[in-house]
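Lecture notes, unit on protein representations.

Consider one protein chain, 337 amino acids long.
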Amino acid sequence: MSFGFLFVILNLQKIIHEFGHFLAAKRLGISVEEFGIGYPPYAAEIGWWYGTRFTFNYLLFGSFITMAGERDADVPDSYASKSKLARLSVLVVGPIFSLVTMCIFVAPAITFFTLAYLSGVHKPVTGININGQEATVATTVITETMADSPADKVGLQPGDIVLGADRIKFKHVGDLIAYVDGLEGQEINLYIQRENQLLQIPITPRTLSPEGQGSLGVGISYKGIKDETLYYPLSTALSKGINSAVEQSWQILSMPFVVLKQRIKGRSEAFLRPTGYTENGLIYVGMGESGTTLYFFFYFLGAMSASIVIPIVVVTAISLLPLPGWDTWRMLTLIFE
């Protein structure tokens, strides 16, 4: 994002903030003498509107309004002559306009991320849900049997496909490992496909295994692993879109601090790390979510929108701080006076 573009966006937000004060003051019958874009020294007069002089000033960052009699109740139609509620209303509307502006800029980021998730996401396959039904995404294949292991003793062979055990079908990466875990010493029935034969083979996982071997004593791989495209319903896509907007914005905001931290430590760490391990941490599948062409397109737009949101959110948050002379401070002072 260019500095010029950022400058324009932040100035626009400040002008809208002051315009909120302006509208509230006019609505409550308070005379607004000047609406300045930028801060003095004075540069040029833009014109007059509803009795207010609009000016352009040399210090371009920011905006302001000058109300009649801000401290003098004797001035006609002055700010100071109005009730406490009226004065408080004028002060409150500015921050409200800032928050509304922030939401307007946040909305595109959320919208684009939501559209990305509606466009189809490829999930790393460790087992997913498609239209409420589990998809068969991986077949467990025995690649070797260890000598004198339970698998060797019952005659399991390389190339055997493990379809399931004890009437439970294995559909996903890690199903066999997860099922056997905790059943050491107990007999289970494996359903095996060997070429054109379907076999039921009883086997008892051993309680003590040699180093580097599992309780069955087999090596396994997976056949037919592929990505499945998942289309989220609108409610889920919206929820994930909001989360992505927040996460992307936070990552952009925290990036300078992360880099500084790594510089201080004298080393760098990858910002991306592989995901897709099974619960046992044994199977590496991929690098996280990917998606369709539309997914990448909308996700890119969402990320760009998030980069614009960051400075707006920061400036809005700072403007709400109760610092002397700022709106929140003046509101608190007015309430407790």
